[in-house]
Hints:
The complex is a heterodimer.
Chain A: H1 15-32, H2 41-54, H3 77-111, H4 118-132, H5 141-160, H6 169-179, H7 184-202, H8 213-229, H9 242-247, H10 250-255, H11 270-285, H12 292-307, H13 312-337, H14 339-345, H15 348-354, H16 362-387, H17 390-400, H18 403-412, E1 417-420, H19 425-431, H20 448-458, H21 464-470, E2 473-479, H22 483-490, E3 494-499, E4 503-508
Parallel strand pairs in A: 1-2
Antiparallel strand pairs in A: 2-4, 3-4
Helix pairs in contact in A: 1-3, 1-4, 1-16, 2-3, 2-19, 3-5, 3-13, 4-11, 4-13, 5-6, 5-7, 5-13, 6-8, 7-8, 7-12, 11-13, 12-13, 20-21
Chain B: H1 3-11, H2 15-29, H3 31-36, H4 41-54, H5 77-118, H6 121-135, H7 144-162, H8 171-182, H9 187-198, H10 202-218, H11 227-236, H12 239-243, H13 259-274, H14 281-296, H15 301-322, H16 327-341, H17 347-361, H18 382-391, E1 396-399, H19 404-411, H20 423-438, H21 444-450, E2 453-458, H22 463-469, E3 474-479, E4 484-488, H23 493-502, H24 504-513
Helix pairs in contact in B: 2-5, 2-6, 2-17, 4-5, 4-19, 5-6, 5-7, 5-15, 5-17, 6-13, 6-15, 7-8, 7-9, 7-15, 8-10, 9-10, 11-20, 13-15, 14-15, 20-21, 23-24
Amino acid sequence: MKTVYKMEENKDSIQNRWFIPVVMLVLVFAMAARTPLDSDLWWHLRAGEATWQSGKPILVDSFSHTRAGMPWINHSWLSQVGMYLLFRAGGSLAIGAAVAALATLSMGLVYMQMGVSPILRAFLILLATPIAAPVWSPRPQLASLVLFGVLAYLFYLYKCQQRDYLWVCIPLFVLWSNLHGGYVLGFLLFVALIAGEMLNHFLGLEGREIVPWKGIARLGVWLGVAWLVVAINPNGTAMWAIPIRTVSIGALRDFISEWQSPDFHQLTQQPFLWLLLATLGTAGLSRRRLDGSDLLNVGGFAFLAMLARRNYGPFAMVAVPVLARHLSALGLEWRVRHRERLEHLIPPERWKRLNRPVARRPGWTLALNALFIALLAGAAICKLYWVTTPELVAKYSERFYPAKAVQWIEANQPTGRMFNNYNWGGYLAWELRAYPVFVDGRTDLYDDQFLREYQQAAAGEQGWEETLDYYAVNFVLSEAGSGLDRELGRSAEWAKAYDDEMAVVYIRER
Amino acid sequence: MDADSRFPNILLPRLGDILFIALFVAVIGLGPRLLNQDGDLGRHLTIGEYILDNGNIPTRDLFSHTLAGAALTPHEWLAQVIFAGANRLGGLDGVVIFSALLIAVTFTLVYRQCYQRSRIALISLGWAILGAATASLHWIARPHLFTILMAILWVRELERIRLGGGSRWWALPILMLLWANLHGGFLVGFVIWGIYLIRFQFSETSKMLALGVISALITLINPVGWRLWETGLGFLRNPYLVGHTAEYLPPDFHQASAWPFLVMIALSILLLGLSRDRKVFVHILLLAAWTVMGLYSARNIPLYAVISAPILAEVSAGLIRRLPFFKAFVQLDERLVEVDRGLRGHVWPALAGLAVVAALARGIILDFSGQGNHFSPQVFPVKAVDWMEAHSIIGAGFNYFPWGGYLLYRTWPEQRVFIDGQTDFYGEQLTRQYEKAISLQPGWREVLHENHVRWVLMPPESLLARALQAEPGWITLFRDDTAILLDMNLDYSPDISQIWESLGENGIQDGREQGFYTK
């Protein structure tokens, strides 16, 4: 089908090859540069420190008194060491820079898979950024996102360019199983590709991008190999059970927002919906047939995202390339369909004049482009520096964590075991080392029943006294105004020893 | 054709009839769930009974003591009358039978729409069943069942107009007249109409516009005129109320009831991606819009189901016809349709209905749980209200929100509620007061005092109940696993006197009138 309005390739326009993607990456970096505060950051740092100092991964709990001495499948030990070393070398700035760099890398990997015009690619990546951004936090989960992107790129090379680098799966999955338990996302990507290509054959599709049956068999073999090499980690074959164990904890879904279904009443979560809608709409309107692998990737990861918000990132990474291809096809169809109207608006001769190569002045063009990028990069680095200054970090820390209450505890040294708020557990494990925590963000260490008992106690619900008695808690660091604060205030057995606008401390009176 | 070959044709039901019977029986089996999934049915029956008894539609509140006499928009009066009529005829069994009838008719219509667009009966059957499964998470005996039915009828007429059949243009205004008096969801009709309007050519746009305007004007034929629109839109514009109404929240995909919805979305992505047929733009728009609305609020999922199923049936049929693998299936279906056309056993749905009515009338329990069609004592304060009736509890009460409708059903007019499920009436201010009291936020005692609350009916493990039990000013009158009834302790008079005196002369007078000084 002849298309009049096809862009003539401009050999001098090297900006299309590097300028646009570099600008895009710098913008993503700027967006990802944030104050590195996450409730889990602190216990990761503590674990990384302990691992570095002991010379071996920490596989037994020593941060809490409720699980002291119990085995802990620490699937993120390698990430923790990396985070600790970064923090030791450069504090929040180093952590912030690492988060921004990894986030940029993950989006860059998506960019490389899109196969449409650079401007469209960059535009869609920037639109997808708010969807993936909630996952860009200083946690090992970010490593999973990057490795997911690497694997997706390997599959893109395998399927679309017939370049076989699947052997990379061996070091990839070995690394992944030591960095974070999210390697199961890689397995899902494998399954989606295998099943998708089988679907293509079933539907009778032909073409260069359809993986032949032999290729599908090879993928199956590499999937098996990947599954085996995941066991190469300090926890051994116990790593295989981690994903199932984690998702079966009902308390995660009930109490932790990132494990809950999306709430589209919140504006910050609507970008996921718009991306899903855009993908649905363009796939429906475009006459380009949806490839089986694309279909299963988009459908499968959309399903995961509907189950848990923490899967927004992987969804965005698989959906955006699909959206790009169909949007590009839709644009082409539209141009063909409205050819006459377009010719009426812009005569072909004028179009050719607009599309002619620009005068050759590559030196100036290069210099201007480089200056623009340098200014942009400078602004991004300035932003990174500003958001990670110790003063700003301390200010935000005080907003989210009970810094003053911790100072009081350190000064007054209450005796006995502590009961603490879940969200503060990691912070307390890092800052208040003399007091093992009651609970923290290691949800795969604390089982479902324990987390529900904690939640009921924290809310001051029926049975809170029994829970505190059972665990021999002697003092409580709770959120001011919480249900537990209210119940302790009414109880004759407990006395309020400290309070501020964020936290209260009660001590049991004997 | 001789008599012998005619005979089986009269006896055998058509596919649509079988679907109707299956759905009808399935919903009858879910009877207790229809009655107990939320607490609003009691309110609807109470208002419906009032209208039937008095012959007028209340436009001022008669049912709460907190907003007594306030302007009330009876946007569901016709549905309430119908449900009350079913209740008069057959009690709660009658309500369940009527609800089952509504649902079965709705999804039989969905099947017919699917078949009209796809021309493959088995595919249509599959989509109708999947649509029913998707919508089932909101199968409750409430007026919104009418909106689901109206939506499919409305789309059917709009589709007819889109395809050039404009002779039945009067159907739209008539449908809207009914809809506006049956349920506040009539606004949905205008959203759908707006989507269809987008794709009309200019010459037909004026006709569509005129139909829309006529339909909008005809909605003013209701007991409160333009206030109907004000109430509906006002509620939707209030983020606090929408955010605090469970059914307006997004679906929770950890619940199995939401999975059919996910399956439909997944299938829509699959089919739209694989299909190479030219798609109808308005269908894509409808599908996309209702997918978003279903993800935004769970109560839109049934509407998504009835609107999307025919669209997806058409797309899937086009795909199936192109694939050689399904050739035998298509041929089988053609033979099936040929046979189906000749069947005349339409009496079977009526027989099934009569059989169910007869069985329920004889006291045979037909629901899957074996409980029978009644308000469950595990969900509602049945025994607590029995106690209240036996002991003539007086004074204004504070009730658990989901029990408001049930309380009205059992105790009105002797008792009026503090609040019930009609949040568009009670508004943000009272809802916030209610939330303050049940979560013991600062000022919770004042909420009870300012509303002259004498007794409290709450779940026994609730924060408010536990707090009141710990206070000397309250005594427990009744308690079971479901509810606790607490009353003001009149022996603790010093505090009581102070409370009423702090409200001034009016407070003391009110207290006397309500019997607070009967000790």
